[in-house]
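pasting for the record
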Amino acid sequence: MVQTLAQPVIRGVRFFLAHTPGLVRYGSKPSRELAKDPGLITALAAHLRPYEAAAAYPPNQAFIGSIYPDDLHTIARPWFKAIDGARRWGPHGEIMPEEEFYGVIKACDAFELVWLEAQFTDTVKDLLARHPHITCTDIGHLGKGFPAEAITSKLNTEPQVLPLYLRDGRLIGCIHAGHEADSSLAADVLLENLVCKAAAVMAMRTLLAQSGTDPEGIEYVLNSGEEAVGDRYQRGGGNLAKAVAEMSGCHMATGTDIKGFCCGPVHALTIAGGLIGSRIFRQVAVVGGCSLAKLGMKFRGHLQHDQPILEDVLAGVAILVGEDDGRSPLIRLDAIGRHTVGAGSSQQAIFEHLVGKPLQQLGLRFRDVDKYATELHNPEVTEPAGSGNVPLLNYRVIAGLAALRKEITPAEISAFVTSHGMPGFSPTQGHIASAIPFFGHAMDRLLAGDMRRVMFLAKGSLFLGRMTQMADGLSFMLEAR
């Protein structure tokens, strides 16, 4: 019996931010710079901001849905001075303080790799007991903690143990290596993987709880994070997707990891749509944990301009893809934009394949898409380091293509960018920043009838892995009913 294809829809999305100034020193750039100049830690510590400032920061509030990205146009820069009350919870997620996130990391630790100090553990237990998505099992997994003397002794006698600090420099724990002779299980690598897992778990739990979705109804999980989970024989073997499913109560699910640099989440969502469309599964969750390596990536530029280190948050996302429910926005599988092997790597060629060709295939014009969501990096993070305004440059290329097709005039390019683009507001968390942060805002407006179409497009730098000189790219359209 031949079955017709099902129409995949997006049923929900939730985001998660953890404010982790104490972990900034373990970002790839700060850790390398501190190894060369240990005295730099004083300047770094002096520019770490408190939780209240991070939670009130307008781009972070846009990330969790409390303000619309276009509203950032009306807020004078620097945004880090536009602080108007810290809000932990927004319509699309939360911003968690670092003390609690350390507790979540410990709850996600299945091999007793993380030791937290006893008094700190008691404090964290009390804080997490009030969280709506933390269970008694999670709190029980924190145990009683360890004496401060035992942690200090470990750090003094075992070189493969990594200390864990709060923003104020207080030592509150440590993390061990998973194997004394396996660099893939070194303490810093395991910390990267554990925080990625923890961020994805919190986003997933929030999505399931707030959407009223039964965890047992999730059949497949795709993890789109960039971290390589494995050991020396299979450095990127995985499977963080299944680890997140386990911690989220999805006992009937299996899953796998999808790798694609910054394109990972868009690849994963396209694959999820295909799994739903072909009726292999009825509900698929796409998750993406954080990137510890990206913390403090631009910190030198921030220090140079005497501003707070803004790359101090770890992000997570969870998106639910399901069969057509007659209400939720559709994923248009009939017009997936693909940067093919033979496409060439110029910006014009990439955007022609990701935007121009899908629109042409659907018989649409550039203005028929209400918003284009692309690399949404916060310019207040990137500009001080000389990286420019990434989203603005991308939107100008899209508008330029529209002008080349005579759909707008060159004089209308700036107006097109303002109307169909948006200010960047995402933390520089690798895969997270590429298109996905607008998902919650798009869902709100598509469901309310305020928008008809939103295109999500991501680009990937495959050449970073030294296996090819190629770039990558993928796009899809969300459409209202």
